[in-house]
Amino acid sequence: MQLTISDQARRDIEDIYTYSYQKFGQQKARQYIRQIEQRIYQIRDNPKLSKNLNFIKQDLRCIIIFSHVIYYLAKPEELIILRVLHQNQDAIRHLWTTTISGNHFGAYCSHRTQYLRNADSG
Fold this sequence. Notes:
By secondary structure, this protein is an alpha+beta fold. The protein is built from 4 helices and 7 strands; from the N terminus they run E-H-H-E-E-E-E-H-E-E-H. The longest helix is centred in the first third of the chain and has 20 residues, at 26-45.
């Protein structure tokens, strides 16, 4: 299965490293990032290992890694890591602005999710 990591997810991981480095030091930061990377490879090998979020978007799934959540699309031939967010972050808001192949994730979402998004902003 092909693995694709969005630019936003890469930035999320960089931000997690920076925060962890400042708070806990280099060794702990590297260890945490390795654990996130290992979890990504686990879900690549077994995409159904996680929670299904089809009510938001077909094929959308998430899995918890300590205090973070990895959001991804599990397509038959490709696993797309969308975001790696802290569990306290507003996932819908952050996913909504994620870009996949030049298109915003929000364009792919169901009408129900768009309604929820509009209700949150108003």
